[in-house]
Every structure is written in C-alpha cells, then in structure tokens.
Fold these 2 entries.
Entry 1:
Amino acid sequence: MTKYWLMKTEPGCYSIDDLATEDKQITPWDGVRNYQARNFMKDDMELGDMVLFYHSVTSPSVVGLAEVARESYPDHTAWNPDDPHFDPKSPEDNPRWFMVDVKFVEKFSNPLPLKFLRTVKGLEGMELLRKGSRLSVMPVTESEFDIICRIARES
DNA sequence: GCCAACGTTGGC
DNA sequence: GCCAACGTTGGC
C-alpha cells in the first residue's frame, strides 16, 4: 500500500530544483534531528511512497512531488564532527538518526501556497495547516494527496 | 525582525 | 518525574 508524506525544506538550503538536478535525481534526506520526523522515516516510509515536496520560509508552498527511493538507513552526517548536524550521541555502532533517499518525480508548474491550501475544501485536517505545526516530515492522507495533485494539474 | 508554538535539556 | 530555561522552527 502506497503511503503519502510531506517533507519540508528551506529552498535556500535545499530546493526542488536541487533535487531535479542531482545525479539520478536522488538525494539522501539527511539532517533531520527530530524524533517524530525520524520515526516516520525509520519505521513507516516504504519504497515507492509518494512525497509532497514543500518549501518553507521564503514562499511557503507545495512545489512538487518526490518518491521514496530507499528505505531508512543511518544518517551518517551525524558522525561527521565537521557537519552542522553532527551529533556525538549518535555513534556509528548505535545510530540515533535515520534517513531515507528521495527521488524527484515532478515540479508543479504552479506551486500551491500554504495560504491557498488553507482555503481548499477537504484539506481542513492537514497536519501542515495546524497552528504551530513544525514537523519536517509528516504523513498526508490519500485524499489530501489526491486533492493537491488534482489542483496542481488544473492550475 | 517578531513571536507563537514546540522540543530538548538539566537541575531538583 | 516535574518544570523552568533555553533553542529552534517557520509563518507573518
């Protein structure tokens, strides 16, 4: 059963264009340092699951689609003292942080702004729209996913 | 830049 | 196990 997700990134840090121009259009989703977000990647994400790609901060919007290309494995950036996401409490023999690989699927011709999503019928319950929602990896229902894809193709 | 909403840390 | 202090996220 395909599941559906939303993954956030600051485009100044890593954008959907960065993903589209990666070798094989695949990137490890490293640097997540939140247990809830980690657990979704570690325990629930499966190969082929679909991902709404979300840009935060500059112009908050869903900008395209990606898919899970590799299931969870340790986030090695936690092992590198020179990496900004280095975590001494996540040693190689007992890793604390995990990540998946994500593959580019599609960039929407028109991104769907957060502000607009708030007005769409059927999305009222979306985790993303919850006040104070800060999760960078979160589940999306199939119906929410379908609605968003349909609108993205209409516009 | 502000600030609300969270998550984490650490003293007790 | 509680909770205050602190740091971070992310919309505005």
Entry 2:
Amino acid sequence: MGTGTRKVTLQTVADAVGVSRMTVSNAFSRPDQLSEELRVRILDAAERLGYVGPDPAARGLARGSVGAVGLLTASLRHTFSDEISTRFLGAIARELAPTGLALTLLPTAEPADAAPAWDVAVDGGIVYSCPPGSRSIERLRRRGVPLVHVDQPPDDDALAVNVDDRAGARAAAQHLLDFGHRRIGIVTVGLGDRAGVEARPPAELVATTAAHAPRQRLLGWLDALDAAGVRPVVARQPDNYVDTHLGARALLDASDPAASVDSVSGPASATGAVPGPRPTAVLCFSDAIAEGTLREARARGLRVPQDLSVVGFDDNGLAGWTDPPLTTVRQDVDAKGRAAVGALLDAIAARRVRAPGSPPVRPDGPPRRVVLPTQLVARGSTGPAPHA
Amino acid sequence: MGTGTRKVTLQTVADAVGVSRMTVSNAFSRPDQLSEELRVRILDAAERLGYVGPDPAARGLARGSVGAVGLLTASLRHTFSDEISTRFLGAIARELAPTGLALTLLPTAEPADAAPAWDVAVDGGIVYSCPPGSRSIERLRRRGVPLVHVDQPPDDDALAVNVDDRAGARAAAQHLLDFGHRRIGIVTVGLGDRAGVEARPPAELVATTAAHAPRQRLLGWLDALDAAGVRPVVARQPDNYVDTHLGARALLDASDPAASVDSVSGPASATGAVPGPRPTAVLCFSDAIAEGTLREARARGLRVPQDLSVVGFDDNGLAGWTDPPLTTVRQDVDAKGRAAVGALLDAIAARRVRAPGSPPVRPDGPPRRVVLPTQLVARGSTGPAPHA
DNA sequence: TGCTTGCCCTGTACCGGTACAGTAGCGGTT
DNA sequence: AACCGCTACTGTACCGGTACAGGGCAAGCA
C-alpha cells in the first residue's frame, strides 16, 4: 500500500507466479496454450494482485485490432432523433452483439479543425448518411480500414448497402396516379431549413438535393409523375423532428381554391409553382412527415383520404397506428443493418488473412454491393381522387 | 509499389524529411513545438508518403487515453427501442460532440463467457440501466476508469445521476387520488415477460422488481396509494416495444363488472388481486405503455378520461399528441445526459491530474451525486372519477 | 534404444507512438 | 565575456501487450 504501488501489469503477475510474461498473457487470451492447472494459478494470482486483464489499448496495438467497429455519421443529433436511423443503429448493435465487437460512434464533425486529429481506433467502419469526402472517412479509407457505405451515393469501389428508394418512391407516386390523382404535392427535406413552397423546377430541385435518400426519393416520384405528365407542387420541410407539419402547412397554404390554373397543363408555366388548386394527394419524404401532414389536414378540416390522400415512406412503427393508417413504402431497416454488418465483418476477416496493413484496394472480385427492395404498403390514408 | 511496402509510420516520414521521429510526432500532435515552416514540410512529406496521422491505437497506449467514453448498458436492443433511452443517448452524443470524444457502446452481455475478455479501451464510462455487478462494469471500475452511474441504484461511492422517479410517481398517483379515484390500476414492467395481473402483494412486487426505474416508480405510486388506503391492481407489461397494450388488456380483462368486491376495502383480502370492478384510472410505467393503454381503452369503447383516466411517465415526444393528450410525469432527459457527461468529464480531468493509474478510490470530498427533479404534467387523459 | 510427436512454456522482437529531459543556437542584459 | 532565457529540435525510455519461433521433456512407436 506504499506510495510506490506501480501499475499492475502482466509482468507483476508473471513475477508473482514465477512464469514468463508470455504465459500470463496466454492464460488470459489463449487458454489452450497452457495447462489448466497453471492457468488457474495465474488467474488466482492476478485476482489477488488486482490485475484485471490485458490492457485493451496495449492489446489493440500489439494485435492490430481493437474489437470495435465505428459508425460514421454526419450528425449524431440527427441520428438519434429519427426513428429510422435509430432502428438502424439498433439493428447494427443487435448484429454486432454476438460477435462481441463494440460499436463506436465516431464524431465526424471536427468542429474546430485545429483540434488534434482526433481519431479512435476501430477495426472497420459503417458510413451512414454522411456527406461523402468527409475528412474522417478519408482518413479511415487511407488507413486501410474496411468501410461499408450505407444509404450513400455509390462511391468508387467501396462496399455499399443501399435501399431502392427510387423504385419505392416511384411506386408510391404511381399508386396515387392509379387512384386518379393529378394534382399532387410533395413534402420533402434537404431543400433548405425554412418551410415553404418551391418555385424552382423539379430538375433543379433534384440537383439541389445533396443527401442521398431525399434525392433518390425525389427522383422516383418524378419518374412516375413525369411519365404521367403531372407536375407536382413541392414543399420544403425543415429538418426538424418535432414540427413535422410545417411542410404540409406551407403546401396547403399555397393552394388557392379560387385560382383556376390547372397543374395538369404540363411543364408549360415556366414560372414554377404558382398558387393552384389544392392538391388532392401528398407524397411525403417520411412517415414522420406524413404523420405531421395528417395532423395538418385534420386541423384544416380535410378528411383523409376523401379530401386528401397522404403517402409516407419507411413504414416506421407508427405508420400502422395513425388515423387513418398510413399508406407508405416499406424498407427493411433490420435487413439493412444485417447486410451492413455482414459485409463489414467479411471485409474485416478478409483483411486479416490478406495482410495487416495491405493496400486499401480490393483486387478480388467486384466490390459487394447490396440493394434492398422497397415495397408499397397500401393502407387507409390513400383513396380515389375526389371529383373536381 | 513493390511487395516490400512496409507500413508507413512516423519513422518513415522522419527519415524522408531528415528529422527525428519526435519532431514528426509533434508536427501532428503539438504544432506549437516546431516552426511553422518545418511543420509544413513534414505534413507535405507525410501526405506524399501516404501517412495519415498517428495510429490511434499506438497513440492511445502511449498517451494513456484514447479519446472515447464507453456506454455500458444491459441490452442495446432494448436501448434503441425505447424512445427515452434513445433520447438519452442523443443527449450524451450531443454533449460529447464538442469535446471530440467518441462514444463507444460496450457490449455488456458477454454471451459465451468463454469468449476472450473482450474489452475496449475507453477513458471513462457511463453506466445506464445495467444490472449492477456486471463483469464489464467491475472490470472498468477496478481498472480505475471513471464511471458515472445513471438511473442505477445508488452504488457505493460512485458518481451517480438519477431522476426522482419516486417523487414523480407519487405525484402521479396523488393526482388520481385528488380526482377522487379509488380503484386504480398499475401497468408496469420488470415483473415478468407474460402479460397478466399480479396476485402477489405490493410489497413483494417491489422486492421482485430488480431494475431501478420500475422499482422506484412502483415505490412512488405505492407511497401515495398506501397513504390513502388504496390498494392497486397491478398488471404486468412485457418488455416489448410493439405490443404496448398487453398490460392494459390484462388489467381490463381481469375486471369483472358483476363482481361486488370493493378494492377500497383495504389490504384485507389476503388472496391478492381478485376480479373486481374495473379500475377508473391507470398508472403506466411509461408513455409508450400509456399510449397502448389508450388504444386498448378505445378498442373497448371506454372513453378517456370520462370512463378511464390514464397517466404515463417520461413525457416523451408523443405524449402531447395522443388523443387525448397524455397526463404524464416529465423527466428532463437532456439534463440527464448533460449531467452525466459533465460529471464524467470532470472525473476524467481529475484523474489525469492526479495520477495515471491511481487507486480507484476518491479521497476527496463526497462523490458527486445528482438527482434531477420530475414534474407532473396534467393534460387531457385524466379527469374526475366517474360516479360509481 | 533412438526418433518422432505433441504438449507446455519461454525469449526475443516487435506494435507505433508520446513524455520528458536535455542540448544547441541565438539575441539580449549587465 | 559571462550569464540568462527562449525557441526549436533530439534521444532515450518507456506504454503494456502479442506473435512467432524455438526448446525441454514425456509419451508413442519402430
């Protein structure tokens, strides 16, 4: 108990038992490398001396792997607010659990860049809804850490897991068209932080939308609408997880029942979105926004789906419980997590056999790229277009 | 490009530039230790050679800190399903972001104990709703890693952040009593995985409930109910995040309108919960369960609050949006996260000045222990007891 | 008896950095 | 000229482990 209590290390235990340091190491990390009897003796001595086990940092350095995978995501605030992101995280955690790997949430922000190049050791990384080219990602890539990109625009040869957002959105829009809707609104994100209605033409909106999912969904909606000659009214929904009705409010505010402009008249009016008759249906970026739209509709005395059809996206846990239950596009978030973790574990394993610090290129076969399907789930929030 | 491409390290760069290894290290980690001109030269050379920066594992070992804090939680599946846990995680992440520290989700499960003592390096840990005495926690504690316990039963001298669940629950129960309710149901978790009504006396239920929050809330409810001589009917809600109505269903199934037993008759009937008249009010462990209870009530044609009052707990994001809006007990999850991270950062800082591997005991002052208040939020889901 | 085999254990050589205590040079006092 | 205090860089000594290639020794086998 003197002041000179040096840190207890493998050596301390080795000396106490009278074996080599290596044997103590094996007692903890490779039980099959020594006799059971000696192992027990060592473990007892360790317990007695207060040795808790190999220091993870040192082990990580020596082994070249640390037992953790990183999650790179733009904003964690964001990630924990959105139900789909959260469920995705949960799926990852669930997949990782049996492997014993930890999940490290890496800060991508790098607030003051002056800060020391903070960097945490990981054996692999999942890049999720993260602006491509971020410095953290680049660093990991160059270091040869296996990365899996999820819901990201296709990068050069990188493992990727994506959802067929575009096809899902297309199906959603087609669903409305099949019901006879011709005046269709869109409420989506990624176009700015202030709610409002877009005057810009759709093509420009696509170009403006940087984030992957919003862009793909917009593309999908437009695929179907363009083919039908329908030009939608697009409203901006702020990236805000409580006021999910603001986009719908802007959309419905913009419609002037007195106006006679027919939005079916095609892409003629170059002025963009002008006040027109109220849409009879709304395509929403997410179920959360769709739910806000339902609230907004109710607040205005609009019946859903008689007066207004509403389509969501994701099929989150609430979609089936709203009133009316939400027609939406389902994505399998669990499958996404499974695929991501699976691919990552494969890549980590492959790296281990090949070379400890080998080049980041993958000479063998094409990079594994998964695209998960989406599926339209028709519920009660959509119905035939009302007679004009 | 030859096969002999050795790993690029500090030394590689040092040799290329013609300086000592230490100087290269400083160029990355302590820019003020060398002239700007040389630093630029070194950084350029590093870039050219493909050196990405100090290896985090090695740096962690040498520095004694890795730039990450751990989150120890019983089941991550659990943690990501519950909105309150999720928001707590978000709050932690938000607090951590400006510090540049990563958040590592440590697996507490240790499935096959035979697995190598998986252990990831962290500078500190937050223990959240985790069975006390878990091996991972114990290991970190003995290693001298600062830990903050959140929503955990008070441990021996450990930093702790708690919420005054008991007072909140007491207030909730008192609120019902003030409305004249005497037949009160409780739907809570932690009593088993099958929905049903408890026959055991309340005292035993308290003893059975191991998890901290469920126990404290139960204690709080009973504080008020006991004082009023009311004996509640307790229903078990499985720890299940989709079928949140099962507890309420069991509770309401158990009530037989024909029976004449009056639960106000005090703790006389030693047989425990017998079919009695339907409760006029329900105390729920969480808002999620309260929401399920609202659904169940509606499905049975019970009006809330005219026929049945419902109280939740937590004041989650949905509580204000249900129909009717939920009376609940608010806890400030953000404050909880802030307090936890604050205490942890203090402890980490304190450890650094004291000694790198000093004893885990804290000789100075009493351990910092925070208890955050709760607050009853009365909304529309509670009202006067109906006339019998 | 001699040779192989396999089990246990040990010695050496790293893993890739950082802390800390110098040392050299240099402009400026006294 | 001796002394001082700076700034800029260097050398050494770790940080606490693990991989891998032996080496001693008893059992198995011809």
